[in-house]
Design goal:
Length: 369
C-alpha cells in the first residue's frame, strides 16, 4: 500500500503541472487582461472593478494616481490605449510582470508556487493565501454541513427503502427525492428567500451573512444559535439536490448485497434480520457510499458555492473566484487553481485510503499488478 500511495503522490506532480499549463496557455488567448481592464476603466468604458468594492483597492488606487492623461504618438499595443502615454503602459507591464515572455512568466510562477508563494492580488493589497483564508469559512460551512446532513438523512433512508423495496413507502419517497433533485438549486434558494427571509411571506431567517452584527456580544449558546440560524437556508439550498443520488446509491448497494449468497447463509443460520443487515451487509453495502465522502464534500465545497453565495450574500470562495476571473486578477485565478487542484488530487488519494479503511480486503497493489 505504501508503494501505491507513493506512486499516486508522484503522479500528482505531472497532473498538476498539466492543469497549470493548459489554463495558463488558454489565458494567453483571452482578451481583456488586467492592463486592458485598467485602460477601459480610465477611458470610462467599463466598471470591471465593481466586484471588488469594499474589498480594498489600494493597489488600484496607487496605479490610478500614477496616471497622466495626454497625447501619445505611435502605435498602441493595447486596444483603447490612445491618450495614455507609452511610458505608463510600460510601467503597467512591469507592475504586472507582462514585460517578460510567457514562458519565463510561467516558470517564475511555478517556482513561486513550489514555495507556496502565490503573490498578491493585482487590485487588492492583500496576499492570495490571506484572501483564501478570509473566504474559507463560508465555503467550509456550506460544504461540510451540506455533506453531513445529506449523509445523515440519505443513508438511513436508503437502507429503509432497500428493506421495503417496492412498497408504497419506497414509491412515495422515491418520487419526493427525485422531485427535489429536479428543482434547480438557485430556484430553490430563491424560493426559500421569498418564503422565509422576508421576501413576501415570513421573516424567519436572516437574509445575508454567517453571523449577526452583535455576534461578539452574544453568549456561547447565543453564538451557536446565531450561527445555525444564519446558515439554515443556504445549507438547505445546497443540500437538496444531493439527497436523491446518495439515497438511491445506498438503496441499490443494499439491494445488491442482500441478494448475495452469504446473506442467505447468515439467515439460514438463524441470525436476526438486524444482525444480518448491520453485521454483514452494512460494511459491504456502505463501501462506495462512505469511501466517497471526501469527494462528495469537495464537490459541494467547490461546485454550487457561487450561486448559493450570491443569492444569500455570502462572501466565500465561489464569489472570490468569479470576481477574480471577471477582473482578470491572475494571481488569485492561478493561485486558487493551484491550491484547489492540489487539494482535489490529494482528496482522490484519501478516497482510496477510505476504501481500504472500510474494507481491508481491498488491495490496490494487486489490482495494479
Amino acid at each position: 500500500m505504501a508503494a501505491y500511495i507513493l506512486r499516486r503522490l508522484l503522479l500528482v506532480i505531472p497532473t498538476l503541472l498539466g492543469i497549470m499549463i493548459v489554463n495558463f496557455t488558454l489565458v494567453q488567448f483571452v482578451p481583456g487582461g488586467p492592463i486592458e481592464q485598467i485602460i477601459a476603466q480610465q477611458q470610462g468604458q467599463g466598471d470591471v472593478f465593481a466586484g471588488f468594492a469594499g474589498g480594498g483597492g489600494d493597489n488600484l488606487s496607487e496605479i490610478e494616481n500614477d496616471l497622466t492623461l495626454g497625447g501619445s504618438g505611435g502605435e498602441e499595443k493595447y486596444a483603447g490605449a490612445r491618450g495614455l502615454p507609452p511610458e505608463f503602459i510600460e510601467e503597467l507591464e512591469r507592475e504586472f510582470g507582462f514585460d517578460k515572455p510567457p514562458l519565463q512568466r510561467f516558470l517564475l510562477m511555478l517556482g513561486n508556487y513550489v514555495r507556496f508563494d502565490f503573490g498578491e492580488s493585482y487590485f487588492r493589497k492583500i496576499g492570495v493565501i490571506d484572501l483564501v483564508l478570509e473566504k474559507m469559512p463560508v465555503s467550509i460551512t456550506l460544504g461540510l454541513w451540506s455533506t453531513l446532513i445529506a449523509y445523515v438523512i440519505s443513508i438511513p433512508l436508503g437502507i429503509r427503502k432497500a428493506m421495503r423495496d417496492g412498497s408504497q413507502f419506497d414509491t412515495w419517497t422515491s418520487g419526493i427525492i427525485i422531485a427535489a433533485y429536479s428543482i434547480p438549486g438557485f430556484l430553490f434558494a430563491i424560493l426559500l428567500l421569498v418564503l422565509f427571509a422576508g421576501g413576501s411571506y415570513w421573516q424567519v431567517f436572516p437574509l445575508r451573512g454567517l453571523t449577526s452584527d452583535n455576534f461578539s456580544e452574544l453568549s456561547l449558546i447565543g453564538k451557536i444559535g446565531d450561527y445555525f440560524w444564519h446558515i439554515a437556508l443556504p445549507v438547505l439550498a445546497s443540500t437538496i439536490a444531493s439527497f436523491a443520488t446518495l439515497t438511491l446509491l445506498t438503496k441499490n448497494s443494499f439491494l445488491d448485497e442482500i441478494k448475495k449468497h452469504y446473506v442467505m447463509t447468515a439467515r439460514a443460520k438463524g441470525l436476526t434480520e438486524n444482525r444480518v443487515l448491520y453485521g454483514h451487509v452494512f460494511r459491504n453495502a456502505m463501501l462506495i457510499v462512505i469511501a466517497g465522502f471526501p469527494a462528495a464534500f469537495m464537490s459541494v465545497f467547490f461546485g454550487a458555492s457561487l450561486i448559493i453565495e450570491t443569492i444569500f450574500s455570502l462572501d466565500g470562495l465561489g464569489r472570490l473566484g468569479f470576481e477574480a476571473a471577471v477582473a482578470r486578477d491572475y494571481p488569485i485565478v492561478f493561485g486558487t487553481l493551484f491550491i484547489f487542484g492540489l487539494m482535489g488530487l490529494l482528496i482522490g488519494i484519501i478516497s482510496d485510503l477510505m476504501y481500504v479503511l472500510v474494507d481491508p480486503r481491498i488491495d490496490f497493489e494487486s489490482r495494479e499488478g
